[in-house]
Amino acid sequence: MPFFSYLDEYSDITDITFRDRKRFASLDKFSHQILRGKSSLSVSQREIIAAYVSGLNECNFCQGIHTEVAKNFGIDERLIVDLITNIDQADVSPEFLQLLKYIKKLTLSPSKIVEEDAQAVFAAGWSEKGLQDAICVGALFNFYNRLLDGHGIKGDKNMYELGAVHLTKRGYSVPWFIRYIRKFIRESRVKKLKG
Predict the structure, then answer these.
(1) Which residue of 56, 126, 166, 180 has the fewest CB atoms within a 10 Å radius of its CB?
(2) What is d(CA 93, CA 44) in angstroms, rounded to the nearest whole number?
(3) Carries keyword Oxidoreductase (predicted)?
(4) Cα distance from N-terminal residue to C-terminal residue, the chain
């Protein structure tokens, strides 16, 4: 059960971010730009990174929902599990593997990142922009993982699948009028989860 009085077993990240638009509106725009904006990383690669970082951090909610989003973009969910359990055995290209190894080190021991780590990514064929795009996705999900786990939101398979449908179709942007329909969105989500 979540730790805050305004959250319950049906809560997801929107129950945090929609509650305080002044604080979180710019984060929604930033997230959409990082995850759906122009990038040398495909949308599916960015969703793999989101799920992978979340798995490394053991954030059930973010790993669950972003594994589902990655699935919706054609990625086998087993890949995420393989990356987390044994990255060297995962079925990804050598180039992407090198980028993911950088992200793993950045997530688990960020102060130990050195120039040689970046040079290995560049030697694998990635540009500075490509590495920066991956760093932004990794950093964003380290933040989101702490946000969700800090509030005690864990979710379940039904929540992950439902949320993934929205993120796959609409991405991460939130309309300006959300404050007027926030209650309706929550009621609709809870009804679907109970149904």
Answers:
(1) 180
(2) 14
(3) yes
(4) 20
Rounded-to-integer distance, Cα 157 and Cα 162, Å: 9
Please give the distance of CA 150 from its chain centroid, rounded to a whole number: 16
Please enumerate in sequence order all residues whose Cβ is within 8 A of that of 174, keeping only pairs 6 or more positions apart, or say none: 17, 18, 25, 28
Low-confidence residues in the chain, pLDDT < 70 = 175-181
Q: Nearest to residue 122, comparing CAs of 112, 134, 104?
A: 134
CATH code for the part of the protein at 14-194: 1.20.1290.10
CA–CA dist 120, 123 (Å, integer): 5
3-state secondary structure of 76: coil
CA distance 28 to 40: 21
Two tokens at 79? 């890949």
Other Cβ atoms within 10 Å of 75 Cβ, number? 17
Query: What was the pLDDT predicted at 194?
Result: 86
Res 184: pLDDT: 73
